[in-house]
Sequence to fold (431 residues):
Amino acid sequence: MHSISTALAGLWHQLADDFPDAPGLHHLDVSFALNDAFDPLAWLNAQQIFPQFYWQQRNGDEEYAALGATKHFSSLSAARHFLQRYPYSPDLRAVGVNAFDPQKGNLFLPRLLWQRHGGTATLRLILCSATSLKNDAQCAREFICSLQESQPVDAVVQPVVSETQRPEKSAWLALVTRATDAIARREFDKVVLARATDLQFSQPVNPAALMAASRRVNFQCYHFFIRFDASNAFLGSSPERLWRRRGTLLRTEALAGTVASHPDDAQAAHLGDWLMHDDKNQRENMLVVEDICQRLQRDGGVLDVLPPQIVRLRKVQHLRRCIWTELQQPDDEQCLMRLQPTAAVAGLPRHIAWEFIARNEPFDREWYAGSAGYLSLAQSEFCVALRSASVQGSCVRLYAGAGIVSGSDPEQEWQEIENKAAGLRSLLLKD
Fold:
């Protein structure tokens, strides 16, 4: 028997209590040691309840799986305002995604939340009703009865029927030239341009299988997955933190500057050393650092910018500088509005680069380059939604972007987005 089965039995026992026939919010918790090979993503995949959300911190210490919703929120602001009504539950978590436009989101308060910290897991059931907790407890019992046993996730690889790039290569090269010309005219300093690749398959693609495949090979990444309904999902494996807040302590970072990776350690180190000393990539990274610092200085806290690091991933390597500070108030709404979109996914100045993107990119970014994670009154953490894909039935849209600054070469930028898209693309296509 899986550990989650025992935990569900414990929750069922607690649901036998007499709940008031009145509005309110209440949560039931069962904590347990992990003593089996339970995979929360495979467990989510076995369920026919939506929405579903999976998130794993890039160092692997934290992992979440949320199933069903007691409340839906169309923005992080709405989620935060709801949580503030329950100061006696500072660890009450809302989970989900923010769009590239940070005023839009899809977050929810889960009916059931499996969460792991290190080697210990907790299963939380949330009762929330505007009329009767007693009635909602009955709904929760029916919810538990509908759950299915976890099943292995089948492989996702299958032949592609057609492929469309938006924009195609010739249009991309022209677009990068248009951007560098605008930079030369000093209209803006940087813009991040993206490409969407639509892969059409003959059979529906299982988004949980794609997430599982990516999780197996893309290390040092946040893994995020949200399934809105039976046919629509958004997922990815991102190396970039947007922010992590513990109380008033905030950590963010500038992840900008890219070079290819290599399976040979010596070759990868050589490429990483080039990246560390390349003027164009260093300038691109420092533009992001300076922008983040300017936005956070409004809080008046001391900003610590750590020395640059090379982040080596499966297909690419990045230049990263971490930034730490302390907030005057633990306000996740302000964190989102000040940090998203960063210069690493939009450009500088932000509003001018954003307008250039809106005028010139031939697709809507939606959740791409937004963020995925969780928030509570006590803490929050969101990653930037990069190296991502949307799945709609038998169509998979892959996203990849590149930062354009003075001196950017269109052909090199095309190769950069090819390298970035390869992380998920290689998991989908047969040789």
Observations:
- The mean pLDDT is 94.
- DSSP finds eleven helices and 20 strands in the chain.
- The longest strand covers residues 105-117.
